[in-house]
Amino acid sequence: MSEIIPNRKIIHIDMDAFFASVEQMDNPDLRGKPIAVGGAENRGVVAAASYEARKFGVRSALSGVLAKKYCPDLIFVRPRFERYKEISNKIRKIFYEYTDLVEPLSLDEAYLDVTINKKGNPSATLLAQEIRLRILNEVGLTASAGISVNKFVAKIASDYNKPNGQKTVNPDEVIPFLEVLPIRKFYGVGKVTTEKMYKLGVFTGLELKSKSLEFLEKHFGKSGSFYYNVVRGIHNGEVKSDRITKSVAAEHTFDINLSSEIFMIEQLENIANSLEKRLKKHHVAGKTVTLKIKYSDFTQQTRSKTLPYFISDKGLILETVKELLYQERMKDSVRLLGISLSNLNTEEKKTVVVQLKFAF
Ligand code: DCP
Ligand code: CA
Ligand code: CA
């Protein structure tokens, strides 16, 4: 019997005309008007165009000169990246209230895995609606969302009812959705690949599906198997959270306060055990071991030791913890013990790469 893998629930959220909408929100004079962020009448390119400007064919990457030609009333606005970043952070804060599995793709969009979510809401569609409403109420901007079983389909779906709309592609709709999808709309298929696909007679998902894996690999190399799979609804890419975990901890509050170190060791063994499981699950190791002790009078103590190497093994963790335990006498009775590991090997390493040029 084959194992039934439950469908994941992925939401892709993308802000509408992001930079332009921020400018219109902050400056009421710009509302309802065709504006272009970036560019200028005689130089540069448009970064973002308001929906009013898009009616004239103004869009991102268009030169300022052409933009002005298409839309003589176009107002050029200088970008304010700090402001966009600030809004981006606000939006992300909202996302994290729903799940920790948030993968930002750029300032204005992210994938959220809400298969299991902090609200205990089984409907990803309703969650997307709620998140969009919160962005509108708390930030003042509209967003669009795509909801489906994987990142690939969710991303494509978020464009469907843009602006200020959302689209759910249910598990049983994924295949038919992809079959009728124009090939240029497949995420990851850029201009060059689209042209190549056209030359091979592939214009829709259905035509893509008619091609064998060998055929696609022959023409598209490594990407061949990607195309082969996604059109069959197979895309297992995980939502990669960018949250840098600073520490991993496990602790336990006791029903009866502990007064002897012998009992504490026994408890610490259990705690080290759960900590090790957590570390293994997240594939991390750390250098700093911290022992947390809460006494019955509610005072708290922490004792730490940093090792010269990374550990994740419960034996090594316990060894360090014991050292910390005996380092100093305990007060009479202990109600909670905890162990945490920090200085993790996942923390971003800011290395400066210096390129040396040698004269011959
Ligand atoms: N951006 C940019 N240069 C580009 C494309 C985009 O600087 N070539 C910036 C400006 C956009 C923001 O990134 O506002 C988000 O890009 P999107 O592609 O998501 O476009 P918009 O949010 O502007 O519009 P849409 O409503 O289509 O998502
Ligand atoms: Ca956008
Ligand atoms: Ca975007």
Helix content: 25-40%
> Which architecture of the largest domain would the CATH scheme give at its second level?
2-Layer Sandwich
The coarse overall form would be elongated
Following the backbone from N to C, one meets helices and strands in this order, namely: EHEEHHEHEEHEHEHHHHHEHEEHE
Rg, alpha carbons: 27 Å
SS class = alpha+beta
CATH class of the largest domain: Alpha Beta
Q: Indicate the proportion of strand residues.
A: 15-25%
Number of self-contained structural domains: 4
Q: What is the average of the pLDDT values? A: 91
**Poorly predicted residue ranges:** 348-360
CATH homologous superfamily assignment of the largest domain: DNA polymerase, Y-family, little finger domain
Q: Please state how the strands of the largest beta sheet are arranged side by side.
A: 5-6-1-7-8
Quote the distance from N terminus to C terminus: 67 Å
Structure at a glance:
By secondary structure, the protein is an alpha+beta fold. It contains 13 helices and twelve strands.
